[in-house]
Design goal:
Urease, subunit C, domain 1; TIM Barrel; 15 helices; alpha/beta; about 475 residues; 17 strands
């Protein structure tokens, strides 16, 4: 902790005291009866309750019977999908895209998009998410894209909105059954709109704009490469989907003579500025390429099982040097934006795949959901230590499913639920208190989303589908 050698207490804005502090700082992983002091948007100090008297706080919050921990980081989401939750059941990945998601994306209005994003962002902060990478490919005109970023920030989240670039209706997109209506904007215009959005919310904004070419397989190669160059010219990251379904590498190799991640490597597009989602079906050469370039991968355990896509080679990627964060994916494929669920699913998925209880641990899953995600997004958070961003959540533990709590890290991963989050602090600002959003009217957001969802589902013929 930061010690105060003077006798006068140091001022701070907020003091969380008396809780079990799970720091994700290797120097002091768990502090029973601890405190976290926050000044402006940074953590000032962390230590034992006996040391809290060194600090004079504008507000003191008792965290007795609570866990204080770093906020969770969601490295892959599609907030605009929130109005379609529970539809798309029983479809493969490509069927889901061609028969459900692309018709949904083509029909959604700006007003419906904003209602969906508010709903998704509210769900995220209530579930303990403090940073998010939203891969937005519904309505992607400039006003709507900027309104999406504004809504994310309005709820209190930090992170990035990656504007989806589709470009031309490529032969691979046609082959996979994707409708031409999903590719309405020429490549040059896609890039111009994206650059205008980045300029409106440049690097360093609380919610940045990134390029987000939609998929390595069916996005035109020239557009994908130009998207990366655009990102690098503005010092922001970029994201895309990589080899989620099992068929993707073979389809791509038939078209281009190379596997997707190898093409990215050979074009110089991999690196720590990239966040590639899923990366399920990659071979040893691709794993080595992703690791050697320290590329970030968004692991989506829940959605990978729902479709199902399969099991990402997490251990091999980590050993090779890649950065791994967690993603909840969109609400129409992951159904809940719950990173607690995904941390647990991560452990279960890899233990079952390897038939080995040592395949991964609760501590590793917690690390990936916090520090790993922060590293993937280039954010100085994911740990409770002096100087880090004050992205902190508080969980209530006075509940049957969290009693007793012998090992807090295991309790967080295996037993805690998103509904256990009582407080969410992002950049030193309280955005959730007593399980309710502070910055927006939670009830109004839910009511608006319910109304808008009914209209949208009717237009695309899903209102009465079982």
């Amino acid at each position: 902790m930061t010690m105060n050698p003077s006798r006068e207490p140091l001022p701070c804005d907020l003091l969380l005291e008396g809780g079990t502090v799970v720091t994700l700082d290797p120097a002091q992983p768990v502090i029973e009866d601890g405190f976290v002091a926050i000044t402006r948007d940074r953590i000032l100090a962390v230590g034992t309750a006996a040391e809290a008297s060194h600090y004079a706080a504008g507000r003191v919050v008792s965290c007795r019977d609570k866990i204080v921990m770093p906020g969770l980081v969601d490295c892959h989401n599609h907030l605009f999908q929130a109005l379609g939750r529970t539809h798309g059941e029983g479809l493969t990945g490509w069927e889901w895209l061609s028969t459900f998601m692309w018709p949904y994306a083509a029909q959604i209005t700006q007003e419906e998009t904003i209602a969906a994003v508010y709903l998704g962002a509210v769900e995220a902060v209530l579930a303990g998410t403090t940073s998010i990478l939203d891969h937005h490919y519904g309505r992607t005109d400039e006003p709507t894209t900027l309104a999406v970023a504004a809504a994310v920030e309005d709820v209190g989240l930090r992170g990035s909105v990656a504007r989806g670039l589709a470009g031309s209706h490529t032969p691979l997109a046609k082959r996979q059954g994707l409708p031409a209506s999903a590719f309405p904007i020429p490549a040059a215009e896609e890039l111009a709109i994206t650059e205008a959005c980045i300029q409106a919310r440049p690097a360093g904004s609380k919610v940045e704009i990134w390029p987000g070419p939609i998929n390595t397989v069916y996005t035109d190669q020239d557009l994908l490469a130009a998207s990366v160059q655009l990102a690098r010219s503005h010092d922001v990251g970029w994201t895309t989907h990589l080899s989620a379904p099992q068929s993707d590498p073979d389809v791509y190799r038939e078209a281009y003579g190379v596997r997707p991640a190898i093409w990215l490597r050979d074009e110089g597009l991999l690196g720590p500025d990239a966040v590639l989602s899923h990366a399920t079906w990659i071979d040893e050469e691709e794993i080595a390429a992703l690791g050697a370039t320290h590329t970030a991968i968004a692991h989506c355990p829940t959605s990978n099982q729902i479709v199902p896509y399969g099991v990402m080679p997490m251990r091999q990627l980590l050993d090779a040097g890649a950065t791994i964060g967690l993603g909840t994916d969109g609400s129409t494929i992951g159904h809940r934006q719950d990173l607690f669920e995904n941390m647990k699913m991560l452990v279960l998925m890899h233990r079952l795949a390897d038939m080995d209880p040592k395949a991964t641990t609760a501590n590793e899953a917690l690390e990936i959901g916090t520090r790993g995600g922060a590293a993937a997004l280039g954010i100085d958070s994911g740990r409770l230590s002096p100087g880090a961003l004050a992205d902190v959540i508080v969980l209530g533990t006075d509940k049957a499913h969290l009693t007793p709590l012998h090992r807090p890290e295991a309790g967080i991963v295996y037993a805690a639920r998103s509904s256990d989050v009582t407080m969410n602090i992002i950049g030193g600002e309280v955005v959730v208190e007593n399980g309710r959003t502070i910055l927006v009217d939670q009830d109004e957001v839910l009511a608006e989303a319910t109304s808008r969802a009914s209209d949208l589902m009717s237009r695309i013929g899903l209102a009465h589908r079982p």
